[in-house]
Amino acid sequence: MSDAGSAPGSLIDDLFTGEQWLSDLPKIGPEDHFVDVVRELSIFFVDEINLPYSFEQFRTTAAGNKLRNLVDYLIINTKNKVIISALLTLKWHFSTLDADDPKINETRATACEIVAWRYLSRLSEREAVDFCLYEIEPLTDMDQSIQSSSTAVSERSMLLPRFASRRQTAISRPATSRRTELEAAMLNMGSTPIVRKNSDAKHAVQDPTSSFIGLTALEIAVVSDSKKFLSQAIIQKIITGIWKGDIYFWEDLNEHSVKQPQFYNRAESKPYARLKVPKYIKTFEFIFFVCFLILYYVVLMERDMYRIYPSEIMLYIWFAAFAYDEFSEFIGAGTMVYSVDIWNAFDSIIILIGAAFMGLRAVGMIKHNDDIVNTAFDILSLEALFMVPRLCSLLSLLPYFATLIPCLKAMMTDFIKFMVIVGIIQIGFLTTFSLLARETFSMREMNWTLTRVFFGASGEGFNIMNEIDPRLGPPLMIIYVCMTNILLITSLVCVMRESFSRIFANAREEQIYVYSVYVLEASTSNSLTHFFPPLNLIPLFFVKPLRIFLAPHHLRLLRIHLLRISHIPIVSIIWLLEHLPGRKYHSGEALFSSHIPESTQLLLDAVKTRENRAKGKSAGKSNADSARGRSYVSGSQTRVQSNMTGGAIDHEEFTSGGMLKNVDVEIPGPECAVEIAMVKERETELEEKVAALSVQIAELTALIMKSQNTGGFGD
């Protein structure tokens, strides 16, 4: 454990006088590993947050003072790059935890998310890029001998040793969902005893966070549904930078390339590095899909029973390239990000339908069976249900459609759940009516009749109720019509309306979340070489078979050379687009500022002032600091600048809600500076007492409300 945070800790204790709980703040050093940071932060949130609060209460009331002070403490104490990842991991952990009070866990999850984006907003933009795109390292460094071992890499391995080891670890695991693996890690994190960091405990207990190695904070934010975090301005600026290529990960296409986030510089950037830009990947993917759809319609229009036209051969090539590209995307992005995107479900169905068509088409042609061939084309016609909407996936980048799609997805989920109840009731009535009308109607006829009644054709039910049974038929049919057309249909409409309202209320967050998934899915792959479809069939047919004869190093070089040769036209088009006459050029580094926010600077100045006073500065310096001091209070930041010659003080107060107030205070002359400083000091002490009292009142109010809900104060 690093002791880097011990020195600033005393300064923080001086700044936050009157807050006894600050002695339990997490001690996080700048070099502490992700495991240690998660454990320290989890102890803090479990110990300090014991009452339910909403997101708005944390933002606007004294309930959020602990979180504000924690952010300030972390800003001064350390700049550990895994803090954001650790906070978002804990957010996911608390949101999925079933133990204790669910409302308390939800509050802790919200607190983790708030601290994450507040901490990030206190950094400079370039530091924020480093924090968001930093990949979690393993506990121990990889043996350097693996770097020179030819058996440690394959044609798909990373060119940096630590990525290669990570890749091998992923390959050695069972072929299960990575999201399922992380959810299991969440459960293990909850069941594993959380202890204070020490060398023995850290290595004695199996690390439940090992599944997060290799992930960035943005990836964890996506899989943990941290939509408020993703909707922050700095996060969206980073994601937009990745989308446009202002931030990219591979410097060049060669065997010595290392995956690391870097800013785009047109003078230094290599042309083939632009093949990994998500904007260009999705653009050429759209062009490929348009050609795919055209070939699909051409084959349906030609529809020859026993003759294969060139267009059908091209369609098979497109099917194979599309399936292989989806498989590569699934392996590269991982099941976590891949499963979040709803369009990937469409892609999987398109591949399954295409495989069924080609299989039945081959069997029908071999057996010369017209029925099988016609069935094959009938199955192919189902592709239009998924291919045409899939073509419109780029509409997800537009705010309206990006909001509407999650609404439809949520409504569809609730509809499927609700139809379970409908199915149970339908089976019950179908059984009863079929037995009563066993001599008049078959079960199939009765099933279709009840289905039509369910969808509004009540008259058909009333027409046959006497034929079902003269005595029991009418009352049972009336009950069935009332339950379906009045109770179930009305309930279904209300449920779906609630789902739509819930998602649409957070329209901006949903749109940003869809956009973030869209970008990260195209940029999180650890593979250096990316072949655009249908050119991705080249390594499949000409490189994969050579694995038996060639060493992995030679296979990797072969993939690189094939990519360079086959993608010359695509690289040329990209180069022309980026070098068009009159096109404005901005380097990626120039778009992200290196200056820290003013609030952070004020806090650092306050710490520096306290440090100078603690070291025993001269009396003149102390008086100057008192007259021209910068004071920090809990929940607000106050800067006082006094112009000793002008006779005025500009008082700027940064309140907890982020509002800036300017107050001009007239003073008779410089001789009153000491008196004004004493008044300000007394005001500061009063504000601290009021803030502490507000926290106590808020906690007492929450405790009373909780006791009213549970019927008492419990144990």
Describe this structure in words.
- The strands form two sheets. This protein has a four-stranded antiparallel beta sheet, sandwiched between helices. Strands 1-2 form a two-stranded antiparallel ribbon.
- It folds into four domains: 6-136 and 179-244, no CATH class; 276-396 and 540-588; 399-511; 598-710, no CATH class.
- Helix 15 packs across helix 16 (310-340), helix 16 packs antiparallel against helix 17 and helix 22 (458-468) packs antiparallel against helix 23 (473-505).
- With 715 residues, it is mainly α.
- The protein starts with 5 loop residues before the first helix and ends in a 5-residue tail after the last helix.
- It has helices at residues 6-15, 34-48, 55-60, 65-77, 83-96, 102-121, 125-132, 145-148, 161-172, 178-191, 199-204, 217-223, 227-230, 233-244, 278-302, 310-340, 343-367, 370-381, 384-391, 399-436, 443-454, 458-468, 473-505, 507-523, 537-542, 552-566, 568-578, 588-591, 598-614, 619-627, 673-710, and strands spanning 247-250, 259-263, 630-633, 636-643, 648-654, 660-666.
- The longest helix has 38 residues, at 399-436.
- It is flat.
- It has 31 helices and six strands.
- Strand 5 and strand 6 (660-666) form a beta hairpin.
- InterPro entries: TRP_calcium_channel (IPR052971), YVC1_C (IPR056336).
- Residues 611-637 are annotated as: Disordered.
- Residues 676-703 form a coiled coil.
- This is Calcium channel YVC1-like C-terminal transmembrane domain-containing protein.
- The chain crosses the membrane at residues 280-301, 342-363, 384-403, 415-437, 477-496.
